[in-house]
Amino acid sequence: MLQSMQRALQRYVAEVRHATTPRGYSFSHNLVLFDFTKEEVLTEWDCISDKDVGGRSHANLEINGKGTGVLFSGELDLSPPTDLSAKYSGYCAIRSKEKKGGWFERPYFDVTEFDAFQLRVRGDGRRFMINLGYPNMARKDDVWQCFMFTRGGPDWEDIQLPFKDFFVTHRGYMQDDDFSFPRETVATLGVLLADRVQGPFKLELQSIKAVRKLTGFSPVKVIL
Fold first, then answer.
1. Which parts of 85-216 fold into alpha helices (H)?
2. DSSP structural state of residue 105
3. Which region, left, alpha or beta, applies to residue 36 given φ > 0 means left and ψ of -120 to 50 means alpha?
4. Does an H or E element contain 199, and which?
5. Tens-digit pLDDT profile for residues 167-179
6. pLDDT tens string 75-98
7. Biggest alpha carbon–alpha carbon distance for the chain
8. Which among 32, 120, 129 is positioned nearest to 69, based on CA atoms?
9. How far apart are CA 217 and CA 214, in angstroms?
10. Where does the chain have alpha helices with state H?
11. Is 117 exposed, middle or buried (0-12, 13-18, 19+ CB in 10 A)?
């Protein structure tokens, strides 16, 4: 109970800082949205696959063997779904749960003072998609997406995804909407694998941050 009150107070202080900070200036060059080295973060995410709608793919989300992050793994199966009425197959994903909000906490992520997401990951060389969910989208299945290419190998890498590279999709199809996503009301973040390559996959995640740079962005990777 005491720890919960302390976290709520810390969030309140952060909100006051945000409200009293002039636009264009931030107390920090980054904001940690998810720290996957903490085991309790698993309760904040859902793991889904086409198996939930009659497909044959499967996925799991768990703490990795060394406790340095979470492991999103499974197998993508492109076989026709067992349920002939199923509309989609060939995908696995994880998605953060919507924040409930409260007296000292807003129900959304506010990344107004930043211009990119940075994910510290260790992948298998496959192409993933980063999804952003928003309340009150024009259509239920509209999401903002950006490609994330992983290197593979034993090293962790920091992948920066500029906000300007995100685009609107509807059920997997890119839309013509040409406007930036609303940075003040990010409801959910997700990682999607739907690259049409059958077989096993794995992606370890250590953190997701919103970051701010003083110069222009390019989709770069920093290998450490």
1. none
2. B
3. alpha
4. strand 199-211
5. 988 766 677 766 6
6. 999 988 877 666 678 999 999 999
7. 55
8. 120
9. 9
10. 2-20
11. buried
Q: What is the pTM of this model?
A: 0.79
| Structure tokens, 215 | 């110069």
Amino acid found at 38: K
> What per-residue string of b and e applies to 168-196 under the rule 16 or more CB within 10 Å gives b?
bbeeeeeeeeeeebbbebbbbbbbbbbee
Separation between Cα atoms, residue 68 and residue 41, nearest integer Å: 13
- Token couple for 108: 């959304």
Q: Which residues contact 80 (CB under 8 A, 6 or more apart)?
A: 89
The token duo for 14 is 């952060």
Tokens of 67: 């406790």
Assign domain 29-223 to its CATH architecture: Sandwich (2.60)
User: Domain ranges in the chain?
Assistant: 29-223
